[in-house]
Specification:
Blueprint (H helix, E strand, L loop, with lengths): L2 E5 L3 E2 L5 E8 L8 E8 L6 E7 L4 E3 L7 E6 L4 E6 L8 E9 L15 E2 L3 E5 L2
Parallel strand pairs: 2-11
Antiparallel strand pairs: 1-3, 3-8, 4-5, 4-9, 5-6, 7-8, 9-10, 9-11
Length: 128
């Protein structure tokens, strides 16, 4: 049974960089045909897809966040990570890592509802 678990700091100061890690157990992040994404929910708002990394290492980002976002992976540890620079209080949210089916030419990975497995989420607050 594949499980995902987010980890990282609960509090980040404005202008700093946020780094979150998702540890995957019960399955490999290099298994075809899946991508592994980051999705967040700001307080009182809907889900926002941030980006993902596919089984082959391809990365995709939400255009509205692309200049501040990077996703990487450590295949030896079966983990993938989110890096978000220059955070502001507007980046305060519950951050989730999740899995989606992935095929070249299909952009379903941009849709949060398409993700079938999710971590429990981790609260990140941006505040001085």
């Amino acid at each position: 049974q594949v499980q995902l678990r987010e980890s990282g700091p609960g509090l980040v100061q404005p202008s700093q960089m946020l780094n979150l890690t998702c540890t995957v157990s019960g399955g490999s992040i290099t298994t075809s045909w899946y991508a592994w994404g980051w999705i967040r929910r700001p307080p009182g708002k809907g889900l926002e897809w941030m980006g993902c990394i596919a089984y082959d290492g391809s990365t995709y980002y939400n255009p509205s966040l692309e200049s501040r976002t990077s996703i990487s992976r450590d295949t030896a540890k079966n983990q993938f990570s989110l890096w978000l620079t220059s955070v502001t209080p507007e980046d305060t949210a519950v951050y989730y890592c999740a899995r989606v089916e992935y095929y070249r030419g299909s952009y379903r990975f941009r849709v949060s509802d398409e993700y079938d497995l999710w971590g429990l989420g981790t609260q990140v607050t941006v505040s001085a």
